[in-house]
Design goal:
By secondary structure, the chain is mainly α. It has 19 helices and no strands. 42% of the residues are buried.
């Protein structure tokens, strides 16, 4: 009987896999048919995706991709893993090395949190469940995108940048606190840093030096490999952005976006959402940047526009989901917890954005100081300046996290000494 059950389960798994493969085969054939029927639409969508990648994504993520590769090769992740274990474990139920993912994810943008998490998992610095927790709350929209592209370039209201970014990060941190209870019965274990006795700061430096001694490549080779890996990842991301830009154009032409908007209206219209925001939300379901731009241009109250942008940024779009899936494709990290957390982040992001915008009392100030000129995307030099400032903020944030770890480590050391003297 047991053999029969195993055989039945084996065939059912194969049937599900075959059904999935047939579904994606049908989607690929439909996509090729759309390219043949609407070649001009496909070309325009590809150009739109290329512009988004080259003007926004590439300059925003390249420094962070290179820096994260270099810092991991130089042992900074292992240093922070020893130092931040007493902080990260009780807050988010992840190892201390996850503090590096938090620093990178909250100061750069999608999908670098997934990439660094996959690296930690491949190096054995976290379990699969811990990697799923990290990946779920460290994938954030880029501050460059929220503060510059959305607030200045789309809304033409710089004051909205702090509201959108603050609500986005606050809702993701809330999600991180809640995710500490995800899969609490995790059977997999890694070596516990807290079990090692001695000065945590000394142990952290010793661990970092061990990693550096194991690195046999010369400095030029390390930097070259970091740049090469960053460029390859960004080209991969650019392909996803262009692909989903074309898909959105095709789905708009055949009317699928309108049908999806009507389905969303069943849920959102009773909550008071404007009907004009539904096409933006349905487009944002697939691609974040296009949906955000449509929400900024919708004929709806500003409070609802801002809330819709918060929801779109939190969901991040199937394009980002596909990018994250490609980053973890060589690991055993599952995508389902990430997708569920994005849905939860969507609800929290929209709610927090609306509450902060409504209760902050700056809505009137924003309306009074709004410029009457049309919104303009900042020039190339302005983007480079802002990106350099954000990179400096990333370094400062990283140092701040290290200082917090040193403080907690010294506090624990003093407590042990006090108990011995007592």
């Amino acid at each position: 009987m047991a053999k029969l059950d195993k055989k039945t389960d084996f065939f059912s798994r194969h049937r599900r896999r075959d059904a999935g493969r047939l579904f994606w085969t049908a989607c690929a054939l439909a996509f090729v048919a759309g390219m043949v029927i609407y070649p001009r639409i496909v070309f325009e969508g590809a150009v739109t995706g290329l512009n988004i990648w080259w003007n926004i994504v590439f300059p925003a993520l390249l420094p962070f991709f290179i820096a994260s590769e270099l810092l991991m090769n130089f042992g900074i992740v292992h240093f922070m893993g020893v130092l931040m274990e007493p902080v990260m474990r009780p807050l988010f139920n992840v190892p201390g090395a996850g503090s590096f993912v938090v620093a990178v994810g909250f100061t750069s943008g999608y999908p670098i949190g997934s990439m660094v998490t996959a690296r930690l998992r491949s190096k054995g610095l976290c379990t699969r469940v811990e990697a799923e927790r990290l990946m779920s709350f460290t994938n954030n929209s880029s501050p460059l995108f929220m503060l510059v592209a959305v607030a200045v370039g789309m809304f033409n209201l710089p004051g909205l940048g702090a509201i959108i970014a603050g609500a986005h990060y606050l809702s993701n941190l809330t999600l991180g606190f809640l995710l500490r209870f995800h899969a609490g019965n995790d059977c997999e274990r890694i070596s516990k840093i807290s079990a090692v006795t001695g000065n945590p700061l000394t142990l952290a430096f010793r661990r970092m030096l061990e990693v550096q001694r194991q690195e046999s490549r010369p400095l030029g080779k390390i930097i070259g490999d970091a740049v090469r890996s960053a460029i390859n990842n960004l080209i991969n991301i650019g392909g996803f952005i262009i692909l989903f830009a074309v898909i959105i154009r095709l789905l708009t032409v055949i009317g699928f976006i309108d049908h999806l908007a009507r389905c969303l209206g069943i849920l959102l219209l009773p909550l008071g959402f404007s009907r004009e925001l539904l096409p933006a939300l349905s487009s944002g379901f697939f691609e974040m940047t296009i949906g955000t731009k449509m929400a900024c241009e919708a004929a709806a109250p500003l409070a609802q526009q801002v809330a819709a942008v918060g929801m779109i940024l939190a969901w991040s779009g199937l394009s980002i989901h596909a990018q994250a899936a490609s980053m973890i494709s060589e690991t055993d990290i599952r995508m389902l917890p990430f997708i569920i957390s994005r849905a939860a982040h969507t609800c929290l992001g929209g709610l927090y954005t609306y509450i902060i915008y409504t209760w902050s009392g700056i809505a009137g100030k924003i309306a009074a100081t709004a410029a009457v000129s049309p919104a303009k995307w900042p020039g190339c030099w302005s983007l480079i300046t802002v990106n350099f400032k954000l990179f400096c903020i990333f370094i400062i944030f990283l140092l701040f996290i290290i200082l917090i770890g040193i403080f907690f480590s010294l506090a624990a050391r003093l407590r042990i000494l006090f108990l011995k003297l007592k």
